Amino acid sequence: MDTVTYQWGRIARIALEHRRELVLANLIALLATLASVPLPLLMPLLVDEVLLNQPGPLINLINPLVPQSWHGPVLYIMAILLVTVLLRALALLLGVWQARQFTLVSKDIIFRIRSDMLARLQRISMAEYETRGSGAVTSHFVTDIDTLDRFIGGSVSKLLIALLSILGTAVILLWMHWQLALFILFLNPLVIALTMAIGKQVKQLKKHENAAFEVFQNALIETLDGIQQIRASNRERYYLSRMVDEARRVRDHSAAFEWRSDAASRFSMMLFLVGFDLFRAVSMLMVVFSDLSVGQMIAVFGYLWFMMGPVQEVLGVQYAFYAAKAALARINGLLMLQQEPRYPHRRDPFAGHRTVSVSVENVHFGYGPGQDVLNGISLTVPAGQKIALVGASGGGKSTLVQVLLGLYPAGTGRILYGGVPLEDIGLDRVRDRVATVLQQPALFNGTVRSNLSMGRGFTDAQLWQALDIAQLSDFILGLEQTLDTRIGRQGVRLSGGQRQRLAIARMVLADPSVVILDEATSALDAQTEARLHEALGHFLAGRTTLIVAHRLSAVRQADHVYVFEDGRIAEEGPHEALLDRNGLYARLYGHYQ
């Protein structure tokens, strides 16, 4: 899969696919500006025309529209007040409409980014994922995406109206008194430049805060995932104290960012207010030494205050941009993580066959340099045969299962199904036809039905048949909502043995060509396990099966046994022969017999 990353240019190209919405948004922003920019001018002009008895354009506009008997200060003031209220309401409605247009574009951009992230996550290498941690990945999908969304949908839409408002204000000020306008317009960029310089320093603090929060979130998720075992070991104090330490780091970095960010915001406001006072002083001098009228001076005061909002919006966009830029970098970091290889579908050994052989040829694998777990493993399972993989913990049995499924690529050597190398079959096709049941199966916070079907379409009859084979149908029948009963996160409402049997039923429904049982019955009592092996015996008959187990009862289901030791196959043979040879089971697993 080609690396897909998002730069601002690409985001802009996606946005341009919504030309109609963007054109409409810009037209609405222009209308909103035309409605709002004249507002600070209307009432102040009445100061000259009404209070100072210097009739001008507003009175000359109103007089022809009403009877002469109505003429007077009350009419003029109330008429302009009504126009002002209507223009404010119109500007508000247009602003909301414009924000809606930008929101629609933003949500589509965010949807595409999130979809690409999910597609990328589908094939992310397990080594990369486990190193990254679920907490860090979650923060990219939630916190970083939300930061980007708020910038694109909120800050950018406000920026357009803010810039148009500043432009409109500049035009009116130039029309009123061009010397004063130029003074104001040249000084404002200086204020913006100073505050942007401060903002660049603050963004580094935000970066440290985000990194600390990511570590905290990752540690929190890991702790919550293992809370049952932590509590059973009476180690809550230790693990939660670690969380407190991480929370303290978040506090320190957040505090540093918050107060300095607030200080920068206050400083920028102070600069603006100092400029505001300076402009007012200059305006008053212009009344004394030029033709600027008192009403126009008050209008200038109004526009100075009116400009404060747009200028602050422009300044706020820079902080939002720094946050969005950092979020986008972290999102791209996830998108650029190493992916699983995508093998072509050259040959399909499963087509037309109920089962296939499995071969492992001189496979070496290690989780890191110098950390080999498999050291030249070679074995062959003829089609339809059952084998058992036994040995002390850490011998490489479960690792071999991961390599067989391609979850971890072999360093050297080959995996073959039906004599066809894994690289010629494709990982997705192998995983469709090879079913694995783990000691700790993954269950979801849904119903029994959804955990069995996993998105596939099965009839109730098929579900009950699978549950019957897994020796779980009686229990499910006893539940109030049977198949529609929710089992909780990781199947918390089920016992360990019930979870394993539910996973076995899920495997039965998949109707696989090859079955791998990795300590799949370790939580069952002897009587239930015996009934399950009997029922599974009919289902597994003629299917290639690999059994990873410590229990002698599980191993006895196999035709052939491979003994793992330090990543190698130390012994192999029929289980009856190994059972008699030097008391192998008694030596390795005596406590299970």
TrEMBL record:
<dbReference type="InterPro" id="IPR003439">
    <property type="entry name" value="ABC_transporter-like_ATP-bd"/>
</dbReference>
<dbReference type="InterPro" id="IPR027417">
    <property type="entry name" value="P-loop_NTPase"/>
</dbReference>
<dbReference type="Pfam" id="PF00664">
    <property type="entry name" value="ABC_membrane"/>
</dbReference>
<keyword id="KW-0472">Membrane</keyword>
<dbReference type="InterPro" id="IPR039421">
    <property type="entry name" value="Type_1_exporter"/>
</dbReference>
<dbReference type="Pfam" id="PF00005">
    <property type="entry name" value="ABC_tran"/>
</dbReference>
<dbReference type="InterPro" id="IPR003593">
    <property type="entry name" value="AAA+_ATPase"/>
</dbReference>
<feature type="transmembrane region" description="Helical">
    <location>
        <begin position="74"/>
        <end position="97"/>
    </location>
</feature>
<dbReference type="InterPro" id="IPR011527">
    <property type="entry name" value="ABC1_TM_dom"/>
</dbReference>
<feature type="domain" description="ABC transmembrane type-1">
    <location>
        <begin position="23"/>
        <end position="323"/>
    </location>
</feature>
<feature type="transmembrane region" description="Helical">
    <location>
        <begin position="182"/>
        <end position="199"/>
    </location>
</feature>
<feature type="domain" description="ABC transporter">
    <location>
        <begin position="358"/>
        <end position="591"/>
    </location>
</feature>
<dbReference type="GO" id="GO:0005524">
    <property type="term" value="F:ATP binding"/>
</dbReference>
<feature type="transmembrane region" description="Helical">
    <location>
        <begin position="23"/>
        <end position="47"/>
    </location>
</feature>
<keyword id="KW-0547">Nucleotide-binding</keyword>
<keyword id="KW-0067">ATP-binding</keyword>
<keyword id="KW-1133">Transmembrane helix</keyword>
<dbReference type="GO" id="GO:0005886">
    <property type="term" value="C:plasma membrane"/>
</dbReference>
<protein>
    <submittedName>
        <fullName>ABC transporter ATP-binding protein</fullName>
    </submittedName>
</protein>
<feature type="transmembrane region" description="Helical">
    <location>
        <begin position="278"/>
        <end position="307"/>
    </location>
</feature>
<dbReference type="GO" id="GO:0034040">
    <property type="term" value="F:ATPase-coupled lipid transmembrane transporter activity"/>
</dbReference>
<feature type="transmembrane region" description="Helical">
    <location>
        <begin position="159"/>
        <end position="176"/>
    </location>
</feature>
<dbReference type="InterPro" id="IPR017871">
    <property type="entry name" value="ABC_transporter-like_CS"/>
</dbReference>
<keyword id="KW-0812">Transmembrane</keyword>
<dbReference type="GO" id="GO:0140359">
    <property type="term" value="F:ABC-type transporter activity"/>
</dbReference>
<dbReference type="InterPro" id="IPR036640">
    <property type="entry name" value="ABC1_TM_sf"/>
</dbReference>
<dbReference type="GO" id="GO:0016887">
    <property type="term" value="F:ATP hydrolysis activity"/>
</dbReference>
